[in-house]
Specification:
Length: 367
């Protein structure tokens, strides 16, 4: 099956490498298949409004290294449950999915590349079931998608968090302080775990292991007694204390996005420990710095490979799929196998064993 005119959209939270994917899809579709490429703007919102731009090798030149997405994105634009604020401030929810399908048909596209994380790909799968030929491309700094070794954007976020750790080390050591770094990742601890190991953290707290505060305090005191009166703690935004709950900066109600927002656990932890030790505690929240800026070389290559392979999959008519990294290959997996699944760190994984075996406290052992 030939592809003549293809569409691409980027949905959900942005991350580094989106433009590398857009460039690869555009170039592969044009160079390999002489197809036209239409960029749909603002994620699925563009499928409702019909706002598009034609993508060419010229319009996508120089974007390989650029952060963000030239197509724009949105977290709130689920056409099946589109959330708008009414005049009285309440949230109105409308199903615009038929309208989105009509737009897709009116654009005369042979396929739609949906670049996104778990939420966006689930919407993509719902559109596939409504008859749109979809190929998914896995994106998220959280690295929490099933069936792929890595999502693009993750490694860059890890590097940013690792650089922050290096800086916290020098100031923490100078001042004899406990430095806490809170990173993103939602309910998965991948960023915290990998950046914590890479950045030489003494304590790493992730959502998958509920931490015991006594364990954290003991580790800090043990280090101080041993002649290291400072400690560096990496904590994932979704981490929680044993028997406690995740710390939310906003609840879902009243938010246009319709999902809870995590954040603040770093400050919560600081409060828990500062009255129990005689060291000062400082918290840094890294936030969206992990999502912005230029992708590292790993994410540039991964994004390019995923984009190129997605175009080949479309040309072969393999719809309802997602391109995935199964090292060393890019493979195709079914979108239906991803729906609603969040891939979290296994608490029995080699990675956690590795961390604990070199003395990193994961909030569950005596030291
Ligand atoms: O899913 C990516 C992510 O950056 C999460 O790690 C984080 O919890 C969330 O998005 C933040 O979302 P927002 O950009 O809406 O604040």
């Amino acid at each position: 099956m030939a592809i003549q005119r293809v569409g691409i959209l980027t949905g959900g939270g942005d991350c580094s490498g989106l433009n590398a994917v857009i460039r690869a899809v555009t170039r592969a579709a044009i160079i390999q298949y002489h197809a036209e490429v239409i960029g749909i703007e603002g994620g699925f919102e563009g499928l409702i409004s019909g706002q598009t731009q034609k993508l060419t090798t010229r319009s996508t030149k120089d974007i390989l290294t650029l952060g963000g997405t030239i197509l724009g994105t949105t977290n709130k634009g689920n056409p099946f449950e589109y959330r708008e604020r009414d005049t009285d401030g309440s949230i109105k929810i409308t199903d615009y999915s038929d309208k989105a399908v009509q737009t897709f048909r009116a654009l005369k596209l042979d396929c739609l590349f949906v670049v996104g994380g778990e939420g966006t790909l689930e919407i993509g799968y719902r559109f596939f079931k409504k008859g749109i030929p979809v190929v998914g491309i896995p994106k998220t700094i959280d690295n929490d998608l099933e069936k792929t070794d890595y999502t693009f954007g993750f490694q860059t976020a890890v590097q940013v968090a690792c650089d922050a750790m290096d800086r916290l080390h020098t100031t923490g050591r100078s001042h004899h302080r406990v430095m806490i770094l809170e990173v993103m990742g939602r309910n998965a601890g991948w960023i915290a775990l990998e950046a914590g190991i890479a950045g030489g953290a003494h304590i790493i707290l992730i959502p998958e292991i509920e931490y015991k505060i006594e364990s954290v305090i003991k580790k800090i005191q043990y280090r101080k007694k041993g002649g290291s009166p400072f400690s560096i703690i990496m904590i994932a935004e979704g981490a929680k204390q044993k028997g406690g709950d995740t710390i939310k900066s906003e609840t879902a109600e009243g938010r246009l996005q319709g999902v809870e927002k995590l954040g603040g656990v770093g400050f919560y932890l600081a409060k828990q420990i500062e009255n129990k030790i005689d060291l000062e505690v400082r918290t840094t929240v890294l936030g969206h710095i992990q999502r912005g800026g230029s992708p590292n070389s790993f994410d540039r290559v991964l994004g390019t490979r995923l984009g190129s392979h997605a175009v080949d999959a479309a040309a072969l008519g393999k719809f309802g799929t997602m391109v995935a990294l199964k090292t060393p290959d890019i493979i195709l997996v079914d979108l239906k196998d991803l729906a609603g699944i969040v891939r979290r760190v296994s608490i029995d994984s080699q990675l956690i064993h590795c961390a604990e075996s070199i003395g990193i406290n994961m909030g569950r052992k005596a030291m």
